[in-house]
Amino acid sequence: MREKAILVGLSLPFQDGELLEECLDELARLADTAGAEVLGRVVQRRERIDPAYYIGRGKAEEISAKAKELGLDLVIFEGDLSPAQVKNLEELIPAKIVDRSGLILDIFARRARTKEAKVQVELAQLKYLLPRLTRRWTHLSRQVGGIGTRGPGETQLEVDRRRVRQRIWKLSKELEKIERARAIRRKGREGAFRVALVGYTNAGKSTLLNALTHADVFVEDRLFATLDATTRRMWVDGHVALLTDTVGFIRRLPHHLVASFRSTLGEVQEADLLLHVADVSHPACEEQIASVREVLEDLGVGGKPAILVLNKVDLLEGRGFLERMLLQHPGAVPVSAKEGTGLDQLRRAISEHMKLGRTTVRG
Ligand SMILES: Nc1nc2c(ncn2[C@@H]2O[C@H](COP(=O)(O)OP(=O)(O)OP(=O)(O)O)[C@@H](O)[C@H]2O)c(=O)[nH]1
Ligand SMILES: [Mg+2]
């Protein structure tokens, strides 16, 4: 049984209406990936975000009626809600209230397979939860109601907070241990030329890794199929390079997640070359390229040598758009990871960077 959901977005003045539509499309894909069935969308035009309800109170009441009528399990908000907004909305609407960050965290939690990913995701979830713990309790004590519940409620809240903090501490320690082990593994690979695949989620990074190294990494037409770094050997011009596949990016990636995934993303930081994979058939391609570059800047690797790989050219009708993209991004390489076209040109481009590496570092 898929949980029934509707999406809620806010249209603010000076905001691009098309962008909001794209953000809602992306939210719908995220909801689908999380296992929800999206029954509809509600968009409200407003001058500003309402501090108490995010949307207007009247709209929230409308949604409440809709939730009853449709038997909704979830109401998913496009923006990020404050703990107070979640609390107020939950009091009004008989469904779970989830915001964009909460949804992304949920997907990561479902998809984490390795110990490392699980620790990283739980850490991010707890950090997200900590400031939101209040509402669950005020909520509960209000349900129990009346005199005398406040005291024990507060105490319980303190106990809960302490438990969460202790767990955060324990997980941080575990993560440090995993990071040390990863650093040792990386040291063992020193000397080899390292290439990291980066890019927007669903751009085709894992498909490209498979195509270039004949690996068999999990590929899926859903968001965030990959959470763990996988490294494979790749032959380029008679030399071996190591190619690493990593977690995909998304616009407004929750910062707790970026912080927790630092060790996985360490592979990106230590790479000699980045292959930035973009889905050139996606309507928001340029925007996605810009979002990825922003995350790379955040990670302190904005200045690393990179090749922009324009993937999924097989889905383009005509060459006009591709020609424009190639003019816009000199040095970009068009490929279809799925059909295996353009891979020779990509290998040549990688080879050029490897030669540069050999002459400047070891030459
Ligand atoms: N038509 C077409 N589809 C592609 C191409 N490359 C990848 N795909 C499809 O795009 C979807 C996502 O591919 P993945 O390789 O899982 O993408 P990813 O970048 O690793 O995604 P995440 O791990 O979720 O961040 C899959 O359905 C692939 O089959 C391509 O060149 N052409
Ligand atoms: Mg992948």
List the SSEs and their pairings.
Elements: E1 3-11, H1 17-33, E2 36-45, H2 57-70, E3 74-77, H3 83-92, E4 96-99, H4 100-111, H5 115-129, H6 133-144, H7 150-188, E5 193-199, H8 205-213, E6 230-236, E7 239-245, H9 255-260, H10 262-269, E8 273-279, H11 285-298, E9 306-311, H12 320-328, E10 333-334, H13 343-362
Parallel strand pairs: 1-2, 1-3, 3-4, 5-7, 5-8, 8-9, 9-10
Antiparallel strand pairs: 6-7
Helix pairs in contact: 1-4, 3-6, 4-5, 5-7, 6-7
Bound molecules: guanosine-5'-triphosphate and magnesium ion.
Guanosine-5'-triphosphate binds at residues 199, 201-207, 219-221, 223-226, 248, 311-312, 314-315, 336-338.
Keywords, separated by commas or semicolons:
6-stranded mixed β-sheet, 4-stranded parallel β-sheet, binds magnesium ion, single chain, Rossmann fold, 363 residues, globular, alpha/beta, binds guanosine-5'-triphosphate
